[in-house]
């Protein structure tokens, strides 16, 4: 018994150490690589001693560092949102993008942005998150309604995909008939991108995501009990109705924050929790939640690096890269589930 416990702890330590090394390497590469390549010494001089060229300082402090921070924070938020939805529906391929939650948030944000920009009004970060949260909750309400109606998990996923397509189609109509200034502002965002992130955006998303993530972590014990079944959770003193509402709200806040700042990003919420559980060989929330956040940050840092360097100076949408990498993982989940079934 002690030997097995020691092996599990060793596995956890090794996985976390590897994740941290990969995270540090990707942060450095995201700061270093781009249309203008910066050396490691120059980066250290700029970050820690205030030296370096004026161009280098502008590139790091105004462009690459806030963008990397956005990828870390929003990537972690997406992974946690996917973990909560997979726990809620007890389905390994549930996620904010697949269930149409991100698309619902995208639609309401697009309407709000077009209306505000057409009147030459400024759009605050807080209002964007609030509007995205409304869209996410509306989509989530539809999914929950379908969950009561249909019994098969496949039909639930299909329903989520359909609402995603509907919301995306309406968003495209809105963008098409918007004025030129609104289209320019909406184009990159509607495709999914971390570009244009400012330090003000980073401060707001950090506050929202970290507070929400802390609440999720504090709920580790009831989440673990819920994973063992509703009956077991009730016996452990968990109020199921309140607990399910809290799960929905937390997952919607996380996905809304991502959509408000970076647009819809696909497959991260499905792929990362699955990979983390596979590496750790456990689904214990106390362990999975922090590693899941770290895994989401790594996943988005890597995908964003690919998006802006592979075909430089042309930049791909982040959602295209995450789909290419994440879709095979989802297919693997489905095939494994079918073999086990």
UniProtKB/TrEMBL annotation:
Primary localization class, coarse: membrane
UniProt GO cellular component terms: plasma membrane
Pfam families for the chain: FecCD
Gene Ontology terms describing biological process: siderophore-iron import into cell
Gene3D superfamilies documented for this protein: ABC transporter involved in vitamin B12 uptake, BtuC
Subcellular location, record wording: Cell membrane
Topology within the bilayer: Multi-pass membrane protein
Record keywords: Cell membrane, Membrane, Transmembrane, Transmembrane helix, Transport
Top-level taxon in the UniProt lineage: Bacteria
An example molecular function term from Gene Ontology annotations: transmembrane transporter activity
UniProt key word Transmembrane: yes
Residues that span the membrane, as ranges: 12-31, 65-85, 97-117, 123-144, 156-178, 204-224, 245-267, 287-307, 316-335
Keyword check for Cell membrane: yes
Family note: Belongs to the binding-protein-dependent transport system permease family. FecCD subfamily.
PANTHER family in the cross-refs: FERRIC ENTEROBACTIN TRANSPORT SYSTEM PERMEASE PROTEIN, TRANSPORT SYSTEM PERMEASE PROTEIN
Protein's recorded name: Iron complex transport system permease protein
Species of provenance: Harryflintia acetispora
